[in-house]
Amino acid sequence: MKRIALFPGSFDPLTMGHLDTIERGAQLFDELIVGVFVNTSKKSLFSGEERLALVKESVAHIENVRVITQARKLTVEVAEDLGAKFLLRGIRSIKDYEYEKEIALMNKHLDSQLESVFLLASPKYSHVSSSILKEIIIFDGDVKDYLPKPVYEALEKKREQIEK
Length: 164
Ligand code: ADP
Known about the structure:
GO terms for molecular function: ATP binding; pantetheine-phosphate adenylyltransferase activity. This is Phosphopantetheine adenylyltransferase. Pathway: Cofactor biosynthesis; coenzyme A biosynthesis; CoA from (R)-pantothenate: step 4/5. Helix 2 runs antiparallel to helix 6 (149-163). It is globular and about 50 Å long. Helix 4 links the parallel strand 4 and strand 5. It is of the alpha/beta class. The chain is built from six helices and five strands, in the order βαβαβαβαβαα. It has a five-stranded parallel β-sheet, with helices on both faces. It has one domain: HUPs (Rossmann fold), CATH 3.40.50.620. 32% of the residues are buried. Adenosine-5'-diphosphate is lined by residues 9-11, 15, 17-18, 21, 39, 89-90, 92, 96, 121, 125, 128-130.
């Protein structure tokens, strides 16, 4: 049977850290599905549609990765619909560990068949988060090194529109 994993996140925006986890995760499974979801507790920079398009463009070079979006549904239910038996998440720090542990245990409660799998963030990206990048972006700081090319270009376009 095909080993399918779902990597859920808000990806607002997708960072090089996310992309690194996706590239490494893709090697562990037959298929990796990136789920671009809404995080109700976070203010968004890009719309759901924009994020979906940017993630698709940024992972186009990885053969066994596809990207989906889903509104208003539990992650465990999305995984079941997709036939995914694994959830992939990244861990940068002890803070992420505590947060991810709560989510993973709750997901286990909701669906005992679903296994969460964690990849440690690569050291070069372990200080990178969408939230911090957003703070820097607001003040026009340089975040080029931490964004996949399509995301950086979309951001530049957004800046030009704001300046007009
Ligand atoms: P969420 O809003 O669900 O936390 P995010 O888009 O912020 O979604 O993150 C999705 C997943 O990617 C989380 O498991 C997060 O820990 C992981 N992640 C975020 N940034 C990095 C990074 N720099 N390196 C590795 N994993 C990361």
